[in-house]
Amino acid sequence: MRNNLIASLALLSVCIPAASQGHPDANFDEAKVPKYTLPDPLTLQNGDKVKDAHTWVNKRRPEILAMYQEDVFGHSPAAPAKLEYEVVSVEKQALGGKAVRKLITLSLAGKKVNLLLYLPAGATKPVPVFAGLWFAGNQTVALDPGVPLSEEWSTDRTAHKIIHKTAAESSRGKCAQQWQVDQILAHGYGLAIVYYEEIEPDIPGALTYGIRPLFFKPGQTIPLASEWGAIGAWAWSLSRVMDYLERDRDVDAKRVALIGHSRLGKTALWAGAQDTRFSIVISNESGEGGAAISRRDFGERTKDLNTHFPHWFDSNFSQYNDRENSMPFDSHMLLSLIAPRGLYVASAEGDQWSDPRGEFLGAVNAGPVYELLGKKGLGTDRMPAVHQPIMHDIAYHIRAGKHDVTAYDWDQYLKFATTQWK
Ligand code: GCU
User: Fold this and answer.
1) For residue 24, is it within any domain?
2) Which atom of ligand 1 is found nearest the CA of 266?
3) Is the CB of 262 under 6 A from ligand 1?
4) Does this model's pTM top 0.85?
5) Has residue 2 been placed in a domain?
6) 270: CA distance to ligand 1 center in Å?
C-alpha cells in the first residue's frame, strides 16, 4: 500500500480531484486502529443528559454548532439582508427539450458567482431540487453549449504563481456522468450547481481572489483564528443559493437536497449543519473533516488536512493535529446537526484514504440523535457489504470502485430523496 502513497494534491482531472494519499505513515490496517471513546452527542457540556427534543434543539445542538464554528470551520458572516441576483437567461428548450435552463448571477458581497439551474420541462408545479458545488465550470456539467465557459484556477508550482484562465470549449459536458442530469430530470427534480472556485479558488494563498476578504474589518488582512476558512465560504455561498431558490417560483424550496463530493462533501455537511432549510444532505466520500470519525487512525488525519489544505479550515483547527482524542466533538456530532432531516453518507471501497468504515461509524453514531427526534438511524452497527444500501432517515452505502460520484451513487440518492420527499 505504501508504494501507492503518492502525494498528488493537484486537480488531476477536470472533474474529480485526485484523492491525495500524502501521508507516508498513514494506517490502512483495521487491526492497527487504536481504541477510542467518542464524546456523547446527547450529554450537555454541564454533564446533564439530553432527554427530549426541546433540550436538543435549544441547548445541545447550539453547543455542538458552536464547537464547529470555533474550532473547525470558523464563524461565518450573517446572511445578507437582501440577496442580490440577476436572472441572466431562461432557455425553455434546453437539453433537447427536456429541461428549462436558467442562468443566474448571484452577487456575493459584490463578487459575481454563476448559478446554473436545470428544471424539468413541462413541470406544472414547483419542483424539488438537488443543489451543490462542483469542481469545474458549469459548462462541464452542461451537455449543450448554452452555458458560458468558466474561469479556471490553477497553480504554477515552480513559479509560485496562481493562474487564472478561461476554460476550453473541449471541457463542455466533461463531468456530466457525475451529475446524471437526465435521471434527475426524469424523476421530476431540478439541479442547481455552482463552480466552487468562483467563490474562492481552492489553492492555499488564493484568499485574496475569493469572497472572504470582502468581509474583513478595516485594516484586517487575514481571517482571525476562529473565522471561516474556504469551506466556510463555500458553505455560506450554498446558503445564498438557497436564498435564491426560495425566491424562484418554479422551485419547491422546502425540498432541496444538498449534495457534495469529497472536500465539497465536507462543505455540504457544514452548510447543511448550519442552514436547516436544506431538507436532505448527501455526503459522497467526504472523509476526514467530513463524515469519517477523526479519532480513528485510518487513512487521512487531522494533521494531513491542516498541512496540505491550510485554507479549508479555521486556524484553531490545527490544535487537534495528532490530538484527535482531545476533540470535544467528532464527525458523528457534525452529522447529528443535520437531524431530523434526511442524511445520506456514502463511501467507495477503493477510497480507503477517506476511511469508509469511519464514515459508516460517523453515521451510526449520529443515530441516537435521530431516534430522540423520532426518526430512524441506520439501526445497525454492522457495516453493509458493497452495493447493499441501508436507507432510513440516515442512509449509507459503500460501492465498488474509486473516489468518484457514479450513476450507482445517484440511483441511491434519487431513491432516498423520493422516499424522504413523499
Ligand atoms: C484529498 C484530501 C481529502 C479530500 C479530497 C477531495 O484527498 O486529502 O480530504 O476529501 O482531496 O476533495 O477529493
Assistant:
1) no
2) 10
3) yes
4) yes
5) no
6) 16
CA 148 to chain centre: 24
Handedness of CA 217, 221, 224, 228 (dihedral sign): positive
Which residues form the domain of 404? Answer: 39-421
Q: How far is the CA of 262 from the centre of ligand 1 (A)?
A: 6
Helix (H, G, I), strand (E, B) or coil at 235: helix
Contact of 345 with 396, CB cutoff 8 Å: yes
Atom in ligand 1 nearest the alpha carbon of residue 22: 8
Q: Which atom of ligand 1 is nearest to the CA of 287?
A: 10
Question: With a 6 A CB cut-off, is 287 part of the ligand 1 pocket?
Answer: yes
Q: Separation of 87 CA from ligand 1 center, angstroms?
A: 33
Is the peptide bond between 340 and the residue preceding it cis, with omega within 30 degrees of 0?
Answer: yes
Average pLDDT over residues 1-16: 45
Spatial neighbors of 411 by CB under 8 A, at least 6 apart, are 183
Ligand 1 pocket mutation, candidates 353, 354, 402, criterion most atoms within 8 A of CB: 353
pLDDT attached to residue 144: 84
Output the domain CATH number for residue 245.
3.40.50.1820
Our answer on whether the CB atom of 19 is closer than 6 Å to any ligand 1 atom is: yes
Q: How far apart are CA 290 and CA 303, in angstroms?
A: 14
Q: Is it the case that residue 263 has pLDDT exceeding 80?
A: yes
Q: Which range among 100-109, 155-164, 181-190, 387-396 shows the weakest confidence by mean pLDDT?
A: 155-164
Residue 142 vs residue 60, higher pLDDT? 60
Catalytic site positions? 262, 403
Give start and end residues of each alpha helix (H) in 104-211: 181-186
Which of 269, 282, 112 is closest to 191 using CA atoms? 282
Share above pLDDT 70 across residues of the chain, in percent, rounded to a whole number: 96
DSSP-assigned states of every residue in 72-134: TS-B-PPPPSS-EEEEEEEEEEEGGGTEEEEEEEEEETTEEEEEEEEEETT-SS-EEEEEEEE
Output the average pLDDT for the chain.
Answer: 95
18 domain residue, yes or no: no
280-284 and 151-156: which strand pairing? unpaired
The ligand 1 atom at the shortest distance from the C-alpha of residue 300 is: 8
Q: How far is the CA of 351 from the centre of ligand 1 (A)?
A: 10
Is 356 touching ligand 1 by the criterion CB < 6 Å?
A: no
31 in a structural domain: no
Q: Write out the three cell numbers for 36.
A: 477510542
Distance of CA 294 from the midpoint of ligand 1 (Å):
14
